[in-house]
Amino acid sequence: MRRRRPVEPLVWLLFSGGGVVTAILVPVLLVLLGLAFPLGWIDPPPYEHIHAVLGHWIARIVLLGLCVLGFVHWAHRFRYTLHEGLKLQRLDAQISLLCYGLALIGSVWAVYILLFTG
Amino acid sequence: MADTIAMEVARYQPGEDGAPTMARYDVPLRKDWVVLDGLNYIKDEIDGTVTFRWSCRMGICGSCGMTVNGEPKLTCATFLTDYAPGPVRVEPLANFPVIRDLVVDIDDFLDKLSEVKPWIVRDEAPLSAGEYLQTPEQLEEYRQYSMCINCMLCYSACPVYGLDPEFVGPAAIALAQRYNLDSRDEGAAERLDVLIHPEGLWACTFVGDCTRVCPKHVDPAGAIQRYKLTAALDTLKHYVLPRGGR
Amino acid sequence: MSVRQTATAVRGRYQPRISLWWWLTKPSYLLFVLRELSSVFIAWFIVFLLLFVRAVYQGEGQYERFLDFAANPFVVFVNLVALAFVLLHTVTWFVLTPQALPLHLRGRRVPGGLIIASQYVGWLVVSAFVFWLVVGW
Ligand code: SF4
Ligand code: FES
Question: What is the ipTM of this complex?
Answer without folding.
Answer: 0.92
